[in-house]
Structures are given as structure tokens and as C-alpha cells.
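Before the break, one more example. Copy the sequence into your notebook; we will annotate it together after we see the structure.
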Amino acid sequence: MTLAEVDASAWAELEGAAADPQSAFRYLNLCSVDAYGRPQARMVVLRRVDVARRLLEIHTDVRSPKWQEISADPRVTLLGFGPQPKVQLRLQGSAELNGPASECAAEAWSLLPQSTRSTYMGGPPGDDIGEPPASEGKAADADGQAFFGVLIFRAETLDWFQLRHANNRRAIFAYDHPGALTSSRWINP
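Here is what the structure looks like once it is written out:
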């Protein structure tokens, strides 16, 4: 594969993963840094990809530690691994947070099924679990929406790595703010 083909293939994998719950790249590690300078990693669900602009959409609870960490430092890394054909994608860039009052979050919320909306109705992530809420329907739905946020990740670099029986391969890609590819090169694995 050429560098252009590798880049196109990686982004096609990500775009397909946003629509396919069975895709390995549907679930990515989001890495940020906490207030003590410690790296933090957690799994997130890839919801949407804009290949042309190199954007990835992830949904989260605005009360979560990751929301606070990214508010303080928007530089994050996303990491995924696809067992076939043994490809690792490591994307570095910045995250834009869209809180419950934003148009972006309202639009994303409107597309979520009730089962997903209900995940935002409990207490803050990491808190002890109390009694489950007795209310259902519109009031509970509105309460969940108050904690729903959208993280838009803008890729600045993509580090593509393929494990092979012999001759592992690795390439680095860089993108400008609008999402155009500005450089690519093969590097030692």
C-alpha cells in the first residue's frame, strides 16, 4: 500500500466503525491528563466521523473526570487496535467540548435511543450508586439531557502501525486545521 492508501484505509475504518458496533475501532481509548499530571485512559464509543475534516464525535457525561480534564487541557490521544489486519491507530489532537445547552449536543441527543439516554440519568460517574430513580419518561429524559455532552476530536496526527509476521510497518500523517493532509512518511516501527 502507498501512504495515500494507508491514510484513506485508516479513515475508512474509523468511518465504518462509527456505524458498526462490531468494529474493533468502534471502541477507542481516550487518553487525557488529570489535574495531578497523571495520564488517564478510558474506553469511549465512536459515534460519528467526518473524514474530510478529520473529526471524531464521542458522547460523554459532563460530570465525568474526562470532561474536567479536557476542559483544563484539550490535548488528547485516541488509540484503537483492529485485530484484522493487526493495525493500531493512534490519533493525537485536540478536543472541543459541547455542553448540554449547545446545538451540537441537542442534535446528538435527539438521535439517541431511549436506552442510551437512560445512561445519563444516574449520579455522576465514579460516585457510589444510590437508589435507582423511580421516575421515567419526559422528566427523567430531560434530567439525563442536562448531563449529556459531545466531545469533538480534531486529529492533528495519525500514527498508523501494522503488526506483521515480518517487517512491521509504520507511518505518520499530519493534518492542518481544516483537515487536509499536510505530510506523510514511513518511519521505523
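Confidence is low (pLDDT under 50) at residues 136-140. The two ends are 16 Å apart (CA to CA). Try to locate both features in your own notes.
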